[in-house]
Amino acid sequence: MSQIVIDAVSKDYRVANETIAAVRSVSLVIERGTFVSIVGHSGSGKTTLLSLIGGMVSPSSGRVLFNGEDIYTWTSDQLSQYRCEKIGFMFQSASLLSILTAKENLMLPVAFRSQGTPDGGHAQKAEKLLRAVGLSDKLNAYPAQLSGGQQRRVAIARAFMNDPELILADEPPAISTRKPRPR
Amino acid sequence: MMQFFLQMNKEHGTTFIMVTHNSDLARQTQQRIRMHQGMLRPSKNNFFLCPPHVVPARAEQPGGVRRPAPHTTRCLDHFLPNLL
What confidence tens digit (pLDDT) does each residue in A60-106 have? Predict the structure, then answer.
């Protein structure tokens, strides 16, 4: 079974008296474990397509199937569970909670899982992910103490905390996690 | 950062869908979707566009009849000859 099937999906937005067709009857299949990029000019519908797959905006017509189920027939709770447990989001903005440290921001999605997850190594996992994105010395830093690029890397690490089946990344930075070489 | 993504994709089998303007990043992915004005653009890398027979009929609709989708016809069988 294909992981994602997008079946003749369209999305229109109503702006003032005008209807804008952001996505027009798109159909495609994405198999499990593939790495897909969506490219195109600004306003071509890329981010809207990503939002439709992520269960964030409902289509005007068509279906989005995840593991064979139409996600837009689910209840609000089921959609929330899908977004929390199956998907890791990387938005264009980091969207970190300012009152939490980098490590605490990573551990936040675990708290929202539907099944109880008493601390079973989540702190260690958060540290491991932050090290993987080159922030080993910023574990206890607050967002205000981080640069914009560092904040985005925290958000990238956060996307992997719940072991998602699918990562949706909107314009991830192309920056390296390597430290700059000393002069 | 891309190396980290590729590593997670390879080691954990995580599916990635990445929106990007960066053609260098896109070139490192297995499949590329090009979009233009809300539609998929046929390209050599859009070979996984959904052929109509892949999508199951909508059982919930009366008679199980699917509304024809104009762009599902942009499948491999239709545009591949133009790309070879």
Answer: 999 999 999 999 999 999 999 999 999 999 988 888 999 999 999 99
Contact: A7, B71; criterion CB under 8 Å: no
Alpha carbons A27 and A103: distance in angstroms, whole number: 39
Helix, strand, coil abundance in chain B, percent, nearest 5: 40, 20, 40
What amino acid occupies position A108?
A: L
Partner residue opposite A28 with nearest CB, options B6, B21, B33: B33
Which residues 6+ apart lie within 8 Å of B6 measured at CB? A35, B28
Across the interface, of A22, A160, A171, the residue whose CB is closest to B21 is A171
Beta bridge partners of A172: none
Give B57's contacts in chain A (Cβ within 8 Å): none
Which of B15, B20, B71 lies nearest to residue A34, judging by beta carbons? Answer: B15
Closest chain A C-alpha to B75 CA, distance in angstroms:
9
CA atoms within 13 A on the CB side of A155: 24
Give CA torsion, residues A153, A56, A29, A25, to 10 deg.
Answer: -130
Name every chain B residue with its beta carbon within 8 A of the beta carbon of A31: 15, 48
ipTM at complex level: 0.88
